[in-house]
């Protein structure tokens, strides 16, 4: 019986592809992860590629997510996130923004427009952080999660303000946190209690009003 001898060219091609894939994985920002939606929600996204699209997280992402949700049976936008990333290829044309959203419940009529501002029932928090290459909007993600604390983070938008000079570039982090529930009301604390004591025939009685 003849023994099997692998074709050296195929082996070389396989090794080349494996090394290439590993290099791409290493270059991907480790903090980038897909936005988590609830079980009954639909995940939607769009990628804006090229350093000239720096403003898309502010200008286009909210409308893009709302359009995709509205086209799916008038669903409301329950969550939204937009971050700018640097794949570390050295080419600014490869830098990109990932715009993501979660489409929630359906409404009988189109939902109100979504803008870059927080919606009713949300708490707005905005921060400015220093930015440097490789771009990593995971810093905004971490800041928003920390600021929202125990309340749910509904929106996180990272806008890269690119000036060009090292040390002058910044991230504008826009966070929208779910408003905490109001404190429980105490009816008894708001009741005025008047105690009247009268002496009759040597007995004391109390009345409340």
TrEMBL record:
Signal peptide per UniProt: 1-23
Keywords: Signal
UniProt keyword annotation of Signal present: yes
Protein name as it appears in the record: Uncharacterized protein
